[in-house]
Amino acid sequence: MRGLTREQKIFLKVTRAYVGEERPDMSFRFSFDGVPQPIIGSGSRIVDVSFHNAERLFQRIFLEGNMGLGEGYSEGLIEVKDEDYKEFLCICVYATSPRILRQLAIFDMIAVVRARAGGYFTKPRQNATIDNHYSLSDWFDNDDDSNTFFHYWLDRDHHMYSCGKWDPETKTLQESETNKLEFYAKRMGIDESSQGKTLLDLGCGWGGVLFFMAEKFGVCSKGLTLSTAQHSFITKEIARRRLQDLVSVELRNVHDMKGRYDYIISIGMLEHITDFDDLYEKTARALNPDGQALMHSIYSESWFYKADRWFLKYIFPYGSCPYFPSNLRCFKKHFKFVEPKKMPDLSYPKTLDAWFANFCKAEPQIRDLLQKSSKVKDVEFAIKTFKHYLAIASVSLTFSGFVGHTLVREPRVHS
Questions:
Q1: Which of 124, 200, 205, 220 is the most buried (most CB within 10 A)?
Q2: Residue 413: its pLDDT value, please?
Q3: Domains (ranges, CATH) in the chain?
Q4: Which residues are CB-neighbours of 77 under 8 A, at least 6 positions away?
């Protein structure tokens, strides 16, 4: 390994340890600035990765963690096939596992841990909003263009931007999202006898829950969103489906919910909330005495979790994962009945993998949309940013955190 920097040497050591411990079926073939390195591993599947401006790139990765990694990929400094990118990222995410670390010298170990820890901070960008991501307001002036971007790679039936329910027999993204909706209806006791009852969806996305509950069970469904693009799409869909008597949507903060409901649901919205006590108290007050609420979220089981700096900058301003134990205590403060459950194993990684595959398949159309209809100055950077987001999230959620859905009823307070 003569001529390589310390960071590059550590990366190769980590790769050898990873292949030996985790993936003996794979081989990795790296090139630093056009100089090929000896192949690592003897597996039949070979992953080729080329690094450009390699010395500076690896300095950034070791100093900045996922910020340096993600920006390096988006800048074109990491060259790898789409189908192999996740496999490469596994090395970076697994780098701090005890089985990998024990094979490194102590100073190499410290460098690796610093690379992971150095990529986090707590303060989000103050000028960011929910609308920034879900309407892509920095990219598009037209909400229809924003919706088109997302719908190129989300499931075609419900446009759900959250973890599907992947049972052993589930084969497609569409099936997984329908599974989830059917399962959540059953958990909340929604069936044919629920016709005419009321449901509030906190952070309703593109209306997947609203339309499913209204069309299948006749439930009067209202959604709250802060995304102008999602609000526009749902409004048009209500008219197209002739559901004006059953479905409505408001541009409103979920903390400002009004009215009383038989059912309240939230799917993938808690990751944008900081004041859970206020939200759950208002949910309890908005729920009819015999009603039920269901909250779906990615949860962290680590009390020292901090949001990833790259995600806060490029994907989810203000985003975070609720700490499960404290969230559970907050639920119990406002509801007498609290029942948490988990999604089937690997449901979110499978969902993210499906989104990634859809994104890559639709990449020519997405590139054309960005070139013709967006304010994006560097289209390739933008496309790779979303690829990195979907791939790194899949790898990370395979080994940390979980997706849970908590059913609550019997509110302790009423209006």
A1: 200
A2: 74
A3: 6-117 (3.30.1050), 130-411 (3.40.50.150)
A4: 51, 52, 53, 57
